[in-house]
Amino acid sequence: MEPSNAPVPHSVLDTRGMPGKQAFAFWQDHIGSQYDLRTPREFPKAFNARVDFWHLKSALLGTFQGPAQDWSRSRACIGRDGMDSFHLLVFRGGWSAPHGGGVPVGPGDILVCDMAQPLYMRGGDNELLTLVLPRHQLAPHLHAPDEHHLHLLRSADPLATLLKDHLSNLLGHLPNMSLEQARAAIPATVHLTAAALNGTIRDEQLGSVRMAMTERICRYIDARILDSGLSPESIARQFGMTRRNLGHLFEFSGGVAAYIRRKRLSLAHARLRRSARSGQSIEDIAQAHGFNHYRSFSLAYRKQFGTSPRETRAQALKGTALSKDADSRLSPWAHWLKDLK
């Protein structure tokens, strides 16, 4: 248990002063598991990148500065890391645009990236303020949560301006805040983020009973996610409500059954990667996570991660030999991104 006055964990990566080839290799070690990076044909004399993140336990907040580069996430990349979070990128400098043309993002704009969906962007000399929220934190507050990938909030949008001011102020105070104080600011951050993305302030973003109940049920489900008796019916009985009302609370995930399936698939994905050399069969992993038929598991898995369970196992086997050495060289923030729940 963290003491009440524990500081907010802080991690920095800075490649300034390194030779260009060494700096890019160091950068690739850190970011290569989350993005598909293209190695330059000719390495520049300098590749100056800086990442400065604070870990608020259920969120990350920090800054990024980096040179011109492509940043993309293929289906294979999504399948490798299984990240299920939203990244809100507040552009303070530089530019970005989709590959092949599209609406560019510039200073003052906010771009939302859903890390569970493919991404193909180009950027130049970016300076970003970045908020990372796990899906279960933000999705319950959003209209059509799966439709916010590459959602662009322009600098002139009043709610976007409020959100930018809030994030800048919070970031500025983190060095002097305790972790307990920083965590207390997360609900307001989530509500303001959702208000900006939805375009209006809803009662749910103002601390309604409905939202409190949804979060309570999510905690109940998460604690019993591998219980074979967990079902929409059992949850409705536990909380004294009808299945219909329970379904309304989980519209953000396509229903409570879809929420349970997504969580179980994410756990199965992590088990597939961890157990690559243990000899545990994929069928046993599927059954342990609530899927009695391999075909239904494989279809649901591919739909969520864009790759098959067998392909995930093969990728994990291929990378196991290098992963321990590589992980030991990573700055804490790189682990925080992968492990954020």
Could you characterize what this model shows?
45% of the residues lie in helices and 18% in strands. The radius of gyration is 21 Å and the shape is globular. The longest helix has 20 residues, at 309-328. Strand 2 and strand 3 (60-66) form a beta hairpin. The chain has 341 residues and is of the alpha+beta class. Strands 1, 2, 3, 4, 5, 6, 7 and 8 form an eight-stranded antiparallel β-sheet that branches. The protein has helices at 20-31, 75-81, 135-138, 158-173, 179-184, 186-198, 209-223, 232-238, 243-249, 256-274, 282-288, 294-305, 309-328, 332-339, and strands at 10-14, 50-55, 60-66, 69-73, 85-98, 110-114, 119-134, 152-153.
Task: Count helical runs.
Answer: 14
Question: Averaged pLDDT, please?
Answer: 85
Radius of gyration: 21 Å
Shape: globular
Structural class: alpha+beta
Q: Ranges with pLDDT <50 over ≥5 residues? A: 203-208, 320-326
Largest sheet: 8 strands, antiparallel
Estimate the strand proportion.
Answer: 15-25%
Could you give the order of the helices and strands?
A: EHEEEHEEEHEHHHHHHHHHHH
Give the tally of β-strands.
8
Q: How widely separated are the two ends?
A: 17 Å
Q: Specify the helix fraction band.
A: 40-55%
